[in-house]
Design brief:
- By secondary structure, this protein is mainly alpha-helical.
- The chain folds into two domains: about 160 residues, Cytochrome Bc1 Complex, Chain C (Up-down Bundle); about 55 residues.
- It is built from twelve helices and no strands.
- Helix 6 packs antiparallel against helix 7.
- The longest helix is centred in the middle third of the chain and has 30 residues.
- The two termini are about 50 Å apart.
Length: about 270
């Protein structure tokens, strides 16, 4: 059995130490390689991130937090509390309107990113996770409606069971079974939604926000000019930066400030 000397304080581990490292070291290095800290917590963002379409994305996450928080309280208190007490009515209303805001903000964000072709530049998984979140949120809301324990939920469940039975899923997804629907609503579906939202945010952080179409064309032109810049007029080591800034300044009035952002987007793999 070989013994590998541990590095001292401030010393880098040797190759032998890495090769004989524990599984925690390998997991840590793999995690940092996939999710580098400078991308997870960046100190700056391109100017095109300051858009209302991303405000709706953040609003959907904020409303999801309120939905889960109010839903947790409702779950702990039970149906009698949210039906017959004033505080229960209050939290029930918070839960309802948080869900309404969640769907509104999510639909606006989803459609906006669809028309922006947010899957460009290797960002397909970002778009797919967002779409799946919306699809899972629909049965999550349905199970919440049929778990209200009132005449409204009875009517919804009796009407929905025929549609689900005709689709062949009524055998294992029985909307008239309160216990089953309650378990789906407060446990299984929320876990899936939260896990996908976390994956969605991490993918956005690692791949970056998709640039607008016009900026993408400018970055492509800047990258095409950079290799031959030295032969076109004495371009030096900073010719790529100059081209990127010139490309960022060649658009609408006030676009001169987009140069550093264009460079940052180029370094982060913003082009398709």
């Amino acid at each position: 059995m070989s013994v590998v000397e541990k590095p001292g304080p401030g010393e880098e581990p040797t190759a032998a130490a890495r090769a004989h490292g524990s599984w925690t070291v390998r997991v840590r290095e793999a995690t940092v390689g996939v999710l580098p800290p400078e991308k997870l917590l960046p100190d700056g963002q391109p100017t095109y991130v300051a858009s209302w379409i991303y405000v709706f994305g953040v609003a959907s996450i904020a409303s999801l937090v309120v939905t889960i928080g109010s839903g947790t309280i409702l779950t702990l208190k039970g149906p009698a509390w949210w039906h017959y007490t004033g505080v229960g009515h209050f939290f029930n209303s918070i839960h309802l309107w948080a869900v309404e805001l969640f769907f509104f903000a999510m639909v606006v964000h989803l459609w906006g990113k669809y028309w922006m072709a947010a899957w460009r530049g290797g960002r397909t998984r970002i778009w797919v996770t967002g779409a799946i979140i919306f699809l899972i949120a629909i049965p999550t809301a349905l199970t919440g409606y049929v778990s209200q324990q009132n005449f409204d939920s009875q009517w919804i469940s009796s009407e929905a069971k025929d549609a689900l039975n005709s689709a062949g899923v009524g055998a294992f997804f029985n909307v008239t079974n309160f216990g089953q629907m309650y378990s789906w609503h407060v446990l299984l579906f929320p876990i899936a939604v939260v896990a996908l939202v976390a994956a969605h945010v991490l993918l956005v952080r690692t791949h970056g926000v998709v640039p607008p179409f016009e900026l993408e064309k400018r970055l492509a032109r800047a990258g095409a000019k950079a290799p031959g810049a030295a032969g076109d007029g004495g371009g030096g080591p900073g010719s790529r930066t100059v081209d990127a800034r010139a490309a960022g300044a060649g658009g609408a009035p006030g676009a001169a400030g987009d140069g550093p952002d264009a460079e940052r987007a180029a370094e982060g793999g913003g082009t398709a």
